[in-house]
Amino acid sequence: MKINISNFPDIKVGNYTDSQAGTGCSVVLFDEPLAGSVSVMGGGPGSRELALLEPTTGMDQINAVLLTGGSAFGLAAADGVMKYLEENNIGFDTDIAKVPIVPSAVIYDLNHKNANIRPGSNEGYYACDTANNEFYIGSWGVGTGATCGKLLGVDKASKSGLGFAEVSSGDIKISTLTVCNAVGNIINPDTGKMVAGIKGEDGYISYQEIVEKEFMNLFGMNTTLGVVITNVKLEKSKLKKIAEMAHDGLARTVNPVHTMFDGDMIFVFSTNKVTADINKTGVLAADTVSQAILNGIEAVKEDKKGE
User: At 98, which helix (H) or strand (E)?
Assistant: First the structure.
């Protein structure tokens, strides 16, 4: 499924997809450096440069964010993103050199197809070089090897993927990219219906049906990641609050969520264009996170229909 970021036409997303190996990476390139923060609520995250997003640090010029498969190995793709940005004279100016600032986060997809192939520097560079305001969601980029519903093992998991949603309300604009690689089931909060997750003989098995069973040991093998972009003027401490509120979208849509098996984290960045209520901004951010996850599942299903 092909979509575009209508709220922020100058922001680009690039995907590197290796369908045969079952892995990939996605990069979000900002047209100008943005302030940002992050909230990590999963017990098994994998990341790079997250400390710079804490409100107590001075960095407020983020150039790009990378979401990648390959577990911690996939963080090597950030080197390619930095190379691309350096070649284009983009980065934090230290007088001696411009240093690209690229926070990065991983999902564990080594159990999907080929554990020996992971995104690296070349793949990160490719994602940047092909980035556009229009891009594919579903089993593309970091969503290539994403699955969900793994509490009883990967053999009973469902395919999930890269998702996107956006909203405009008054002056507030929010666009959100997600990749769902959750240990839990995916539920449409409007209907209460499971749309992906643990496969049973007749549809999906609810978490409640297996709560007394022994869960598989899946530490660090699951993660839902999100990148939220808003135009609301907010300092870093308030951006972190928006990131925390945005996790409510995960809680509505993924069950269970934020376990020690998961590495859930949400980034929030602002273009600082308008003044608006932080509470409304956070509520809308959570809504887009939930909808982006559902849209990613729908895109995967549509892709399968077209095969």
Answer: strand 98-99
- Residue pLDDT, tens place only, 62-74: 999 999 999 999 9
Ordered alpha helix ranges (H), the chain? 77-87, 121-129, 207-210, 236-253, 278-305
Which structure tokens are listed for 219?
């530490």
Instruction: Give me the pLDDT at residue 303, please.
Output: 83
Would you state the torsion angle of the CA atoms of residues 119, 151, 179, 107, taken in this order, to the nearest 10 degrees? -30
- The answer to whether 14 touches 129, Cβ cutoff 8 Å, is yes
Domain range enclosing 152: 2-305
Q: Give the tens place of pLDDT for each residue, 174-208.
A: 999 999 999 889 999 999 999 999 998 888 988 77
Q: Name the residue type at position 14.
A: G
Cα separation of 88 and 125, whole Å?
Answer: 12
Alpha carbon 285 to chain centroid distance? 13
Which residue in the block uniquely carries the two structure tokens 């093998």? 221
CB-CB contact of 269 with 65 (8 Å): yes
Which CATH number covers residue 264? 3.60.70.12
pLDDT, position 307: 42
Q: How many domains does the chain have?
A: 1
What is the per-residue DSSP string for 202-248? TEE--HHHHTTSPPP--TTSBEEEEEEEEEE---HHHHHHHHHHHHH
- pTM as predicted: 0.94
